[in-house]
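Methods: example folding runs. The two proteins below were folded one after another, and each record is reproduced exactly as written to the output file, sequence line first and structure-token line second.
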Amino acid sequence: MSVIRLQETQKNSLDWLLQTAYTAWRLFVKNELVNHAAATTFYFLLSAAPLVLLLTYGTQYLAQLAETSTLASMLLAALYDQFQLDQLATLGLIPQKTAIAAGGVGLLTLLLSSRGLVNALQSAFRVIFPDEAKRNFVFKWVLPLIIIPVAFALVSVTVVTQAVINFLANVELLGGGRIYLFNGLNLFARIGLVWGLLYVVMHWMPLRHPPRRSTFIVSGLATLTLSLLYLGFGHFFHIEKYQAVYGALGGVVFILIGAYLACMAFYFWAQFLYALTKVDVAALERLFLAGEGQGASKLDGIVFGRSNRLLAKYGQTFADGDTLIREGDTSKEAFFLYSGKVGLFKEIGGQEKRLGELGEGELFGEMAYLLGETRTATVRAESEVTALVLPPEMLEELMRYSAPLARRIVGSLAGRLMRMNQAAKG
């Protein structure tokens, strides 16, 4: 018996994962996040141009100091190692030498592009995590100013860490094995840094913050995806081909494609995080609207075909004669009749009168929550009944998530009120 229960639990977990991934992908396409990724990439490139220019000035300044300073030479070597500046210079993405002064134009471009980047992120997250509230005005305008110092601080941390490791290796304070160990720790630190940044963005950018645990796991998956994308990008996209077609701009196009793919991966995982909180809503919608032809595809039927997971989470069984809802109660739960039938009863003139019955696939009990009143009728099982018992917040989420389901609930409620009025008059 325990083996069967374990197998069923595993199937339910697999259903949950499949339904979450499918819901995330469907919302990703519906929300046109591909276009949002393109906009984010555009502002990223605008931000990268002045940053690369400032990075060039930094390397030139360190190169001058390196002639007389060992520490400056260590920092310069770490900078080249961390950001592969030799390759970027070879690709023409940064100038070998520059005589242009870092004036107000570059800083102004950096400020405006950073604000555009933040706005692009906020616009995408408003679509991914819909919320009617508005972001704080001060936060909206101050955030672009904070991002630049934070970015430079993080860059400085990685450069200094690598410089320390290089220094310890050069003065032979570390053995070969320890150098590999420290380099590995430095790599994990950088991965952890990216993980932390993604966690902060995914948790704090939505106006309604998602659960911390889910955000931590999803941001880790996003970090893993971006790491694999970074490692495998060069194997599938060869920069020589782009340089042959676009000439000097080939390197820029190459980076553009990589940034675009990274943005799409990031937005997909953000959408996946939202889908984690909506997977039950999506599954319940498909169950409630089954057979009504509400745009459901065959793939929908395959992904949401099994109801076992919902039954295990929300299902309750009632014997013949059991009372599901009692007239006058203050409970607010809604019921979806999965199997069996129930009778509707109301006390009229001191006697209980039968108003009718409900069969499989009917949603009832929502009137108390929607109208803010006590139960208006008694619902009693007239056979063995299996029903999904939904808390009020789930009913609210269902109506907000699905317009077809909201119309069905309102129509069902109106019809039930009409029948009760007719029964009372009769």
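Second run, written to the same file directly after the first:
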Amino acid sequence: MNKDRVPLLLDTAKWYKDLMDSNNKAFLPLFFDQHRYLVLKGGGGSGKSIFAGRKVLERVTTEPGHRWLVVRRVATTIRESCFAQLIGQIAQYYPECGAKVNKSDQTISFPNGSKILTFGLDDREKLKSIYDITGIWIEEASELEEADFNQLDIRLRTEFPHYLQIILSFNPISITHWLKRRFFDQKNPRALVHESTYKDNRFLTEEAIKTLEGFRDTDPYYYMVYCLGQWGVTGKTVFNAKALSARLQVLKPPKRRGLFEYDLDKDGIHVSNQRWADDEAGPIKVYREPEPGRPYVIGGDTAGDGSDWFVAQVLDNVTGEQVCTLRHRYDEDTFARQIYCLGLYYNRAKIGLETNFSTYPTKLLDLMGYRALYVREVEDDFNGKIRQTYGFRTDGLTRPVILSELIRVLRDHPDLLNDEDTILEMLTFVRNEKMRPEAEPGAHDDCVLALAIAHYIRPQHTMQIQTLEGEGTARWSEDMWEDYNRASPEMRERMIALWGKPKR
């Protein structure tokens, strides 16, 4: 609404004073905002919906010819929410505007030719008949699919002497929601984003404030999401959501980002001349550089059906800290070669890749001569004997085990996490109706499972720092290193004399 367009018989000063007296200060500038999208994210009791209704009424009563559409996901929810609110606001603030309410059609008409229409997106056929829309208020916009929003957006294209605007009001629910990606993760020059909480609403009663603040002690996560309006999840989180959210706030950017380049040998298998290449959009993020003599492990989750990510998690095997991540949509051979280079980079790290959908990456690593591969025991179907094979198998028995171990490790040590993508996945890793832990609809679990595998395989690799000074020429096996790390100082000297100084 333009400042110079004020209700008849009221001068600007009186009009603005009335507006100030009957609205929250945090929302006053928004009455004059003309962005295409006015995005109102807020906690419960923040007053965002009250403001949205008020702005709609200010515009339809002072700008003739509006056809303003008010929508929610389901039509039956509008009558007792938006429609009832608008009728109440008209009676309280615009009693002389001459509005005519049609309760059967849930429309409101005004003498200046403006009209408010309310619809639910579950009645799509009826919605197709709507034309010449000049403004849209979407209440509980988080209930909509992005495709629904896009359909509404293209309908707001009529010729009109005043600006066209879509107001979206909602409580943040899922950290993976399209609203967050579209309006918050990247700046949209056509949108104004506004955030509010119950603390911005001076009209809340003391009783209502006490109720909201009571959740701070009884349910801190609910308080954080519902009352303070922070992004959350739709289900019961498997991991400590409060601790993970706090960790997100203090994360530092990776020390470097990029990928490995290499020369592919003529046999099409082996690589040589591996080197690091910086790339701001690269799939590998390094949070801690490898230290000489320090052991590392790598857990990997391979893309199952082509829709998921290839992910690898690198852990410091002494502390369990996440020091590097790889996340990309690769071909299997490219993924395997990046893992190969990453393993060498981190002191020939122990590597365990999931082999549920394909054993190819693990087999390629073996063909390339990478010997520090995770080994699991498998019962032979033919004779019942136990045999050993490379790679990690995620199934009904191992999945609960690796997830339980990950929950245990991170319960008291969320500081071991350094990667934002991983933490965001963990926040959307929830328990379904059957209490099975899984990614909520629309989210991924690749980072979570790769991290769980990495923690699970840690005991199969040394957790001791190899403190030999200098570098020799002898090649030591993993068993030799394990014996050396457990030996006394005197015995270590004898081992070096017997085996020779190792090449690392």
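Comment on the second run: Residues 1-10 have pLDDT under 50 and may be disordered.
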